[in-house]
Amino acid sequence: MEGLNAASKKKIAMAVAAHKDEKGPVKLMLHDIQHELGYIPFEAMEAISEATGVSVAEVYGVVTFYTQFTTQPKGKHIINICMGTACYVNGSQMLLDRILELTKAPVNGTSEDGLFSLDATRCLGACGLAPVAIVDGKVYGQAYTSKAVENFVLETLKASRMKN
Does residue 77 register a pLDDT over 90? Predict the structure, then answer.
């Protein structure tokens, strides 16, 4: 765990210790680490492997299988735009293009300033509200025509510029 700071190493150790004696602890450990650090570093996978006897490859398989886990740090604000069929036909591509333009974050990546992570997702299960976006856990329906997501991004950018 050479690349991580002491605080991150401690959080990983605490998550591993909290669940090491439980049945099926890998997902529990990963969930805690994701919550604490915002992502799952490789060093955490190694620590989980060592504590549980599960190979690093298996731990990595769990991380990459479940979409709630990420191996890359996320931005301060996470924007998910549904690209499922109902959302797509109701404007999600245009919404995604506009948010790309505003945030400068690549699809399924994070803006250089670390302010936004932008993910194009599949069905979010709210087809009647299409197109749907989720920003920091809050669901926005009719997200293209309502301009709510665009306004959130613009307000966040304005506030960020005022701080600098």
Answer: yes
Q: Give counts: helices (H), strands (E), the chain.
A: 8, 5
Q: What six digits make up the tokens of 155?
A: 């307000």
pLDDT in tens, 112-128: 999 999 999 988 889 99
Q: For residues 43 and 1, give the distance between their C-alpha atoms in angstroms, rounded to a whole number.
A: 5
- As a whole number of angstroms, the distance between CA 153 and CA 36 comes to 25
User: pLDDT (tens digit, 9 = 90+) per residue, 83-97?
Assistant: 999 999 999 999 999
Structural domains in the chain plus CATH codes = 6-65 (no CATH), 77-163 (3.40.30.10)
pTM (predicted TM-score): 0.70
In whole angstroms, what is the distance from residue 55 CA to residue 62 CA? 11
Q: Report the C-alpha gap between 156 and 164 in whole angstroms.
A: 13
Distances (CA, A) of 49 to 59, 86, 98: 7, 41, 42
Separation of first and last alpha carbons in the chain: 33
DSSP annotation of 1 reads -
User: What is the Cα 45 distance to its own chain's centre?
Assistant: 18
